[in-house]
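Field reference: sequence -> structure
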Amino acid sequence: MIGRLNHVAIAVPDLEAAVAQYRDTLGADVSDPIDLPDHGVTTVFVNLPNTKIELLLPLGENSPIQGFLNKNSSGGIHHVCYEVDDILAARDKLVADGMRILGSGEPKTGAHGKPVLFLHPKDFSGTLVELEEV
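Structure field:
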């Protein structure tokens, strides 16, 4: 069902500093920041030859990323994102297999303008998993 690794997301307490590390220190191609109010984040993508790193900064007081940073003040890996061909079929199979979809269970539009869902970390070895339709 899952395809390629789309990205690994890292929550950061200082987006400008994180961008500078990847761009200036590591020489990576880094996107401009994008505010995603529906997800409560500002996001930047570090483009790598085989995948992406997503840097996440809380956007607003109710951001789930702020809660993560409250527990991990230096930041850290927040989730991994895998590609799927059909997000609704993937969701239905996962639910049938007893997995939990976070939120309403309906896909939201993600940073790439494509449908995404998040899977409960307790169902995936403590890892928050995002699925993105490609």
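Note: The CA atoms of residues 23 and 30 lie 6 Å apart.
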